[in-house]
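Hi Q.,

Before the meeting this afternoon, I wanted you to have the (3E)-3-iminooxepin-2(3H)-one prediction in hand. No need to reply - just skim if you have a minute. The sequence and ligand are here:
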Amino acid sequence: MGGRAQLRRATVDTGGPSQRAPAAEPDAGRQVPPTGPGTGRIVAGYLAPHPPHLIYAENPPQNEPRSTGGWDTLRWGYEELRRRLSAGGRPDVLIIHAPHWITMVGHHVNCVPHPRGLSVEPIFPHLFRYHYDFRTDVELAEAIVEEADAAGLVANAMRDERVRVDYATIGALHLVNPAWDIPVVSLSANNNPYYYSSASLDQMEVLGAATRRAIERSGRRAVLLASNTLSHLHWDVEPELPEDMAAEHPYNHHQYAWDMKLLDAIRSGPTSALRPLIEDHIEATYAETKSGSLTWMLAAMGWPQAPGDVLAYGTVIGTGNAVVEWLPDGEVGRG
Ligand code: 2X7
Ligand code: FE2
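Predicted structure with the ligand bound:
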């Protein structure tokens, strides 16, 4: 099924129990007042990868497994990201698109006001069993659904509080804001990396533009997060000590070289050069950007002229991961 096949208006079956929760109070989940209707803007966008190993290595109290560390350079990149986030003034909301909340029909937006539960990585449950508890900016989440629907996408407000939040969403959000004191909007991957060989990124451009319109309408200062790994071939045998860094390196030189090609283009700018290159990189490396998170984010930011600032690159079980900051044109840097 091509990406365009779902570019239509429709009432969506969520694929699971779809009863609507009692209507949320208008301000449920809000912790800061809006800056005024019509004045909202994106203040930064980050490529924010989510390998569960990074959370495991951090040893936060919310995660059950304990480690001795590892993958330090990537975690230093996140440290710098957090420094910049607080230097730039606390945003009103973090909006995240992640590849492991896969929805088969349409783009779903989590509208549960207070998600709480246990998020488990199905392949690495010994590394990631994370107890999450955060607030959704329900008003903005609903506005994104409305704008996406008006743009002709199949879009759905997910209101079932029994749906567990996936590890890609939780992992990236923890690394960006371990205090969890900023409201969140979380979007699913309909353009998912695993099932549609012909999936197109065009739809993610439409979703990005819809997200931007909703932010502008809302008055929020938003930070966007694209929760994607780059090259995605990986080991199938784990070392006895998962954080044994002697075993950690790129899967092969081809994967590494393509990651560097993409990162060179990111560091040179403008982002419009990435439009075709992201697709070539996916072809060459099975990159997780096929889920569309990165394209969604850059489209929402209007494909900025300015280059991205690569804060870190490192591998996790052989996959390539980069932490990158983009500022929208006209926004002042905090680097
Ligand atoms: O989801 C992931 C990933 N993207 C990369 C590496 C390891 C595990 O999980
Ligand atoms: Fe992943």
